Amino acid sequence: MFLNSLHGLRPKLCSLVRYTRGIRPQIKVAKEKFQISLDLHQFKREEIRVKAIPDYVVIEGKLERKTKRGEVIKQFVRKFRLPDGCDPKTIKSELSSDGILTITAPRKTYDANMPSETIIPISYSGPSKENESIIPVKETKCSSPIKQGPVCDDKTKK
Predict the structure, then answer these.
(1) Residue 51 contacts by C-beta under 8 Å, 6 or more apart in sequence?
(2) What are 47-104's pLDDT values in tens digits?
């Protein structure tokens, strides 16, 4: 008996899974902005939440409806990585009257005259020895650092 009642629910559960997986976004990445659009016409504004975390925007939706046959629950979570130049604090979202959620993030444009390479100085924070001193290396005409007899350039000896 219990298995028969589960069998009757299976098509409904499959359609729910298909719907939440079917929320296909339209993504536009332009030089001046990043935009995501989702068709969420089945959700009310208070059932949708948009939040920004560093490098990502997260869209969540959850609806609960009572029907003659019971209760229907639909929910989803979508996470999108923000492209370079997007500040999570500047993201705006808008839900149209026909249920299209549009999220827009302006992108910072970089000055073309800005140097493309910056040299970063390296500081040293290792332990220092009190008796250590730097001795300059004197330039010699020897070609080998190991003394194995006369290896220096001396034109007087042959």
Answers:
(1) 57, 58, 60
(2) 999 999 888 999 999 999 998 989 989 999 999 999 988 888 899 999 999 999 999 9
